[in-house]
Write a structure and sequence with these properties.
There is one protein chain. This protein has six helices and 19 strands. By secondary structure, it is α+β, with helices and mostly antiparallel strands. It has two domains: 55 residues, no CATH class; 170 residues, no CATH class. The chain is globular. The structure holds zinc ion. The site of zinc ion has 8 residues, from loops.
Length: 294
């Protein structure tokens, strides 16, 4: 049986909007009845719990009995994911209740271009236009899924409905798509321990914190502090981790600070020989990397 996907926001009878976390407060701060944060459907608050299989279910608002969302409601997960699938047929496959993003290496723009010097369709993947590649279908689908999951506040039950597939390997969504603000330590650990031969493309979503003028590199914001240590997010060895998107052309990408981007491709860990931060880097335009604003 599939878990219901929580509605992350509700509006109370006094028209005040509440996130899902207030459900756990004692006393609950809202005045019932509650309606869906995206439409007028009546909803009920449900406290978080752990399923028998050990999956965490965050607190959520659930539709009242016999009630359904109004057409076009942003929090109607089934409708939203259905439309996402329709828009990305050929890249997102439906397998029962699961949606599988098919990864490929078509982003090898420069290699593809050199193999086929004539302007075949693959050449459209070559990276020009101030370094921003045309939105590749895989990247577009990945960013749409990331956006949808963000709308549902990274609900584990929503994430559990997605997979990525690379060749024959099926990858859990959390091992494919990372939020720079939350999953950086795990990403760094995975990149540092996975052998290159068995690696696969990954997507990292994050807010641009700094654009380096010298080469147009985009530094993504990491969470201010590690909840465990209350200090900066650091690797296992206590070294700070920095996620960076680097244009291989060395030219500006036309992306401004505070924009949210998704970088897709082969992320690589790198530490300067002289020491310093651990970088997790995606080279754009070469080494199979591409980027889109979210
Ligand atoms: Zn709704």
């Amino acid at each position: 049986m599939i878990m219901s996907i929580g509605i992350p926001r509700a509006v109370d009878v006094e028209k005040r909007s509440f996130d899902r976390w207030v459900i756990e407060l004692e006393p609950q701060p809202f005045a019932r009845p509650l309606s869906c944060g995206g439409c007028h459907a009546r909803v009920e608050p449900v406290t978080g719990y752990m399923t028998r299989k050990g999956t965490t279910v965050d607190p959520l608002y659930r539709l009242g009995r016999g009630v359904s969302h109004e057409n076009g409601c942003v929090y109607d997960f089934d409708a939203q994911v259905g439309q996402l699938h329709q828009r990305n047929v050929g890249v997102v496959e439906k397998d029962g209740d699961l949606y599988v993003l098919v990864l490929n290496m078509e982003l090898e723009g420069e290699q593809a271009a050199s193999k086929d010097a004539k302007s075949g369709p693959r050449n459209r993947l070559a990276f020009s236009r101030v370094g921003i590649p045309p939105l590749h279908p895989t990247l577009r689908a990945a960013s749409e899924i990331a956006k949808l999951l963000r709308k549902f506040e990274h609900d584990p039950a929503a994430k559990a409905r997605f997979r990525a597939r690379y060749g024959r390997r099926v990858i859990a969504w959390e091992n494919f798509c990372f939020d720079a603000a939350h999953d950086l330590k795990r990403l760094h650990r995975m990149l540092s321990t996975t052998r290159v031969e068995v690696d696969h493309p990954r997507a990292v979503v994050g807010r641009v914190e700094h654009v380096r003028q010298r080469d147009g590199s985009l530094y993504l914001a990491v969470r201010e502090s590690d909840p465990a240590t209350r200090g900066p997010v650091r690797s296992g060895e206590g070294v700070p981790i920095k996620p960076v998107l680097r244009p291989s052309s060395g030219s500006a990408l036309g992306v401004a600070v505070d924009e949210t981007v998704v970088g897709y491709g082969m992320w690589i860990p790198w530490t300067p020989p002289s020491g310093g931060p651990h970088y997790v880097t995606l080279w754009l335009g070469a080494h199979r990397g591409a980027m889109a604003t979210l």
